[in-house]
Hints:
Blueprint: E1 2-5, H1 15-25, H2 35-44, H3 46-53, H4 57-68, H5 81-87, E2 90-94, H6 99-108, E3 117-119, H7 132-141, E4 145-148, H8 151-159, E5 163-167, E6 176-178, H9 184-190
Parallel strand pairs: 1-2, 1-4, 2-3, 4-5, 5-6
Helix pairs in contact: 1-2, 1-4, 2-3
Amino acid sequence: MKLLWDFDGTLFDTYPVYVETMLEVFPHLKETFERDEILKELQVSFTHGFQYLGLSAEQEALYRRTNVALDPKRFQPFEGVEQVLKEAEVNVIMSHKEKVVIEAVLREHNLLQYFAEITTPEQGFPRKPHAEAYEYLHAKYTLDAAIGDRALDLIPAKEVGMKTIMFRGTCAASDASLAHYKDFQKVWETL
Length: 191
């Protein structure tokens, strides 16, 4: 099996760290927003979250600088994901996250060796849900499926002919849903 992965919220449980960092950098947000509300809006996209929270361009830039500098130890892979990575013939990542951060986090958790390629908008690819990066990766590796935690991650995979697995949720673009990586093989067999 050859898999395309999203990073945030799919391989690693990053969003709780992002919310914590948001509240560290902008403690005034605690007066107006609940943690779960911030989490929900950041999961749509950072840009959406910043707009929802009413942050200025300067505040957004400060948050992004802070976020890039976070200690990779703060991010934890989802339980069971390493076993899926080991069993796959090929793993690639398409993420909006900065490549240097992805590599640092993967290296910290001894997972970098499982990935043939990491693709981000930094290499000139348009942001999801545009399918250009997916087309590139699919043409290069003949991928079977994409795994993501948002419709945004799966729509371009469907567009280029891959099967899709939604992690911890459901959406119209998903062929299957996966609640925990220990159940990956069962879900894979349904595709």
